[in-house]
Amino acid sequence: EVYVEIHADGWRFQPRVAAVFVWQDHVLLQGALDGAFWVLPGGRLLPLELTADALVRTMRWEIGQEVTVQRLLWVMEYVTPMGGQPVHELGFYYATDLPVNSPFLDLTRDHAGVERGLDLVLRWFPVDALPDIERFPGFLRTALQQIPDSPQHMARADSTPRSED
């Protein structure tokens, strides 16, 4: 696949979409199997693809579920070192619902996913436990405790490298 991203002079720009699944005061996060980090499930855009459509496609590929994208919660600009180079990521975070009969709605166990051919684990975390989760984007540690009524713009730049997600 060819994703929308720009590589130039040692830096990269990429748009990303992410699903905010909230169920019974829990949020669904995906992590690497080595447990190094937890992020909201999501992915990158294909050329000429709308962000909500990219999220539906990504969830179909990664977790095999036909999700329903509800509304945009946050747009986040994030500049950080990633994989040895500066990356500017423009993230679109959507409130998203799983199908009513989804096995992913089981809060008591881990769920399997796949991203770019790599196995992922997805796990529900209590929203009030998010401040203690490793590698979770900072603003979401508390933002999910009070979902905004209208979309919010967040911007963050840091110099601490993070894992590729």
What does this structure look like?
This protein has helices at 51-63, 138-143; strands at residues 6-8, 11-20, 22-23, 26-32, 38-39, 42-44, 68-82, 85-97, 111-115, 118-126, 152-157. By secondary structure, the protein is mainly beta. It contains 2 helices and 11 strands; from the N terminus they run ββββββαββββαβ. The strands form 2 sheets. Strands 1, 2, 6, 7, 8 and 11 form a 6-stranded mixed sheet that branches. Strands 3, 4, 5, 9 and 10 form a 5-stranded antiparallel sheet that branches.
Q: How would the blueprint of this fold be written?
A:
Blueprint: E1 6-8, E2 11-20, E3 22-23, E4 26-32, E5 38-39, E6 42-44, H1 51-63, E7 68-82, E8 85-97, E9 111-115, E10 118-126, H2 138-143, E11 152-157
Parallel strand pairs: 2-8, 7-11
Antiparallel strand pairs: 1-2, 2-6, 3-4, 4-5, 4-10, 7-8, 9-10
